[in-house]
Amino acid sequence: MSTAIITRRASSRLSLLASLRSLSSRAASSLDADVIVVGGGHAGCEAAAAAARAGASTLLVTQRLDTIGEMSCNPSIGGVGKGHLVREIDAMGGLMGGVADAAAIHFRLLNRSKGPAVRGPRVQADRDLYRAAMQAALRRCSGLSLVEDSAEDLLLLDEGGVGGVRTGSGRTLRARAIV
Questions:
Q1: Taking the CB of residue 156, how many other CB atoms lie within 10 A of it?
Q2: Helix 42-53, helix 127-139: angle, nearest 10
Q3: Is the overall model pTM greater than 0.85, yes or no?
Q4: Looking at the predicted structure, is the pLDDT value of residue 115 above 50?
């Protein structure tokens, strides 16, 4: 299960209602951030970096800072399908392509003998270098703060929408948008 999936627990609904009332009455200047991104996987890293690049104060909440950018047991980036996605992310200023290049140990063009439509560049990356490069890239993002905690609950606003998250340590983080 992805850490980007947030579940709501029924047992904490009553305590949430009290904090929601106080949250909805606070001024916008009391927000912890403009955007909170939950999860430090590929999508979370890109979402947090994109929000920060757009000028939003951003919190990336992840259970363990040392696992940000952790790759699976098959540490490849690219291929026929994902290669297009990585190039599109790169074209919009994303991190994955540059981080993959920094951690690369082998480059290959897949389906070289076939037509251009099915060719796909792929890089095999050193898992430790990739993780370190992604963490360094995120730390260089102006306006992005990393928070080591688990997002346990969403803070729902009386007027609808989401106003923040409650963490496993009991902290309440407020924001205009949650990813």
A1: 18
A2: 20
A3: no
A4: yes
